[in-house]
Amino acid sequence: KQWYQRRVRGRSLMTKRDSLHFSRSDKGGEFVIMKKEVQQQITMKHLTDMSTEGVYAHLKPTTKQRGTGRLQLIANPTNISYSRQINRVTERLEKEGNALWTNIS
Fold first, then answer.
1. Taking the chain (105 residues) in consecutive chunks of 10 residues, what is each chunk's mean pLDDT?
2. The whole model's pTM is what?
3. Are 94 and 81 in contact (CB under 8 A)?
């Protein structure tokens, strides 16, 4: 009976996967599932928390110029532009971290 309940819960999560954020702790290995909006709100709060001054750098959202490919600051950033910036930086850091672990192991 327990395996069936886990299977049903797993299917339920998979049907909602586009609106959910899945993550795993790099230190303790805990697995967390939350709504993407909640994860973005937590990340924005975490990144704008000035009580940890010196730990984080504020990166203003940028866009690539057509033709030159140079990065240009977005004059009036929105929540969407901040979310895109967070996603880009997160992807880059994840790739760098995975490459580092590959080199170490």
1. 61 72 76 84 75 62 84 83 84 88 81
2. 0.39
3. no
